[in-house]
Amino acid sequence: MNDLRTAQMQLLDRLHHRATQSPQAIAYVDAGTTEKLTWAQLFHRTAGFAIVLRSKLSAGAVVLIRLPNCCDFPVAFLGTLAAGCTAFPISIEAPDAEVHELGTQVHPAGIISFRAESFDGCIIPQDALRSEAMDFPDPQIAPDGIGLMLLSSGSTGKPKIVCRSFASLDAACDQMCRSIGIGPEDRVLATVPLCHSYGIEHGLLAPVWAGAAVHLGRGMDLQLIQRELLQSRITLLPAVPSVYEMLANLLTHGEHFPSLRAAYSAGAPLPTSVADRFFDRCGIKIGQLFGATEIGSVTYSDPTHSHFNLASVGQPMPGVEIKIVDEHLWISASSMFSGYLHEDIPQTVDGFYPTGDLARLDDHGNLIITGRAKLLIDVGGLKVNPLEVEQVLMQHPAVGDCIVIPVRQSETVVRLKAIVTQRSADQPISIELLRQFARDRLASYKVPRSFEVRANLPRTQTGKILRQQVQA
């Protein structure tokens, strides 16, 4: 086999090692269709797809991957890396107009997709994902070459295209597996879309690095999730807060998932009330991860740790440094991105990336995210952190989702508005009681002047409320 260590893509080296040592062990299962891939099949299909790409595209070319969570996705992604190309996963739900717009920015050379579409580059046939080969082509991978492009979430502004190097992906794999303790005996239930940073890191990168099996789910199919947890010996559940909330509401008291050893949340803040209800139903404490598309997963709150703090996102993963300067969170990690596409502005200062988050440490060094610097709202000269107000309002038993936004009354006057959804249809929200609930718990200037009840709030696929869209 090619010496992948000199090519600086250890992830591919580990894929080959797992396929050699345990060829018939299961690597991927499509939980919806029960299609399976052994490690030998994953390796040989990855190698075959890489050879197809190298016959059509040059090294460094960008390949759009527009696939759902299915067994073809890891083949397409890993094969793109093995060909020395750049993988750019995008949502299967992205409309053709958005795909076209991305194409004008990225100029991809190829696309692999289940959907027929107009595309100026090379459309890779789906049959290419079934090709098999005994070995990778010569990858010619430079450590600082771009292996992955991802769209930032766009939850607080216009999405940007994040560029991450081959070396940063290896670093992300190592720090995640060491922190969470992922190993070949684990089975991961991956329902977060693999086109998102959280999804691809915990449903593909870390499991392949560790040699763990992955059961893939598409979307928030609660029946599928519950079935897999009960019947498929799932040991790790990386999910978003809304999944845990729906599970907590669905489960009966005392229901147990016999093999689940770690459940953790990311993508959006996890309300304490949700974590408490989940623990009350099935006796499992939910940990939290903190990360971003630009830096990957960088902290983990381990429920088995003696100083576990439900309100925190834990402590830095191995190889990660954090510092808090005037309440602003800065992070340095080998998993950090190379920059944004078409932007030459330096993104770090002395090797540290300004996350834009406000944070503090508790007495045991656990990181607690307190808000976003860009979200601070000036009310009569006083700064209000909307996340603080939202967390209080979501403690009300009738409130499901909540967002607090600024509403400009004049050129100099800004007021707060809270937009909420009902937790359940049979428990209507009284605006007056909710306002009094806020007054009892917040300083007067932090209490929203107006309230609105909506059926739902727009969210990203990882659960973040689209603030810009709501405010618009």
Q: Gist?
A:
The protein has 472 residues and is an alpha/beta fold. The protein has helices at 4-7, 10-21, 39-56, 72-82, 96-106, 166-180, 197-210, 222-231, 241-250, 272-282, 386-393, 431-439, 467-471; strands at residues 26-30, 36-38, 62-66, 86-89, 110-113, 122-123, 146-151, 161-165, 187-190, 213-216, 236-239, 262-265, 286-292, 296-300, 315-316, 320-325, 328-333, 339-340, 353-361, 367-372, 377-379, 382-384, 399-408, 414-422, 450-453. It has a five-stranded mixed β-sheet. A four-stranded mixed β-sheet has the order 2-1-10-9, with helices on both faces.
Largest sheet: 5 strands, mixed
Please give the share of residues in helix: 25-40%
In CATH terms, the superfamily of the domain at 203-373 is ANL, N-terminal domain
> What is the distance, rounded to the nearest whole angstrom, between the alpha carbons of the first and last residues?
55 Å
Number of helices: 13
CATH architecture annotation of the domain at 203-373: 3-Layer(aba) Sandwich
Q: What value does the average pLDDT take? A: 90
- Give the overall shape, derived from the CA principal axes: globular
CATH fold node name of the domain at 203-373: Rossmann fold
Task: Give the class-level CATH name of the domain at 203-373.
Answer: Alpha Beta
Assess the beta-strand content as a share of residues.
Answer: 25-35%
Please tally the β strands and state the result: 25
* Class of secondary structure makeup: alpha/beta
Provide the low-confidence segments as ranges.
1-7
Side by side, the strands of the main sheet go 11-12-13-14-15
Q: Taking Cα atoms only, what radius of gyration do you get, to the nearest Å?
A: 23 Å
